[in-house]
Amino acid sequence: MIGRFDGGKISSDAGGLLLREVESRFQILKRLARDCFRDYRDKDRIEHTVGSLIRQRVYGIALGYEDLNDHDSLRHDVVMGLLSEKRDPSGKDRVREQDQGKAIAGKSTLNRLELTPEDANEKSRYKKIVADGGKIDELMVALFIESYQSAPSEVVLDVDATDDPLHGNQEGKYFHGYYAEYCYLPLYIFSGEHLLCARLRQANEDPASGVRQELERIVKKLKEAWPTVRIILRGDSGFCRDEIMSYCEGESQLDYVFGLAKKVLIADPLSQVVDPSTGLPPCSRGFGSTEGGQCSIASSSFFYAAAMRPYNVQALLNDRRSSCGLPSG
What we know:
five-stranded mixed beta sheet; disordered C terminus
């Protein structure tokens, strides 16, 4: 084994060059910087453009550097300078002598990029790079639409919420009973692998909070681009809310599939498809081997509506049990 230390500057982040090639083709980060941010800084007194800062932050996250503190070390990484589209990735062309050799921005500059309030302007003292949240929302939907060469006949939107754990006394911290931790509860809307909405929310909100407003803007854009497309909205029981279902029912070509929370009125029809003598569905069939024997499954559907709702919805029930009569999942 031979150990040598004369290899010069070496980086472990060369995989980011593949992401750079993707960006050079689709120009996503370029559009994000150009169309979704306002920069009130004096152009004659800056070294890091908005485009450079966004590339640095996004590529850093993609490479596993989530914390801003990481960038004080990454400033010496030539590959990060290349990913950030610096003229000299080594940073030797920096104006101040103390910055030479550090091509990219430090944590403080990135902090100002992320935390500038929306009402900031050229008179603000430090934070002058303003993100336009509405334009960022529009860009995500536009990128999804542009990913299709021709109009699809059907689009499926999946809405979900998940936990974003907190480890400190962050603003808006609440304990969430389901996740059993202090967290935020961000909202996501996907279509396949495409993200159409990401909204940070506090954990004391209902999972369906704000969903209708997000759907209204997304569905409007989709129908403007594809007037005849059928849209299907999917979500678990946390999104089975009258406000959302009524909105879908009032729109043409917009259907929904939601989970239903377990209730006595819903559970009762299931007894009609289970043999009381065996506890198994009479129409059961083999469904693979388990340690206890065969697994059986039966389905039943019926129309159901809460008293406050003007429409019935079709509910599908599945009963899945092992041969010993115990639920199998």
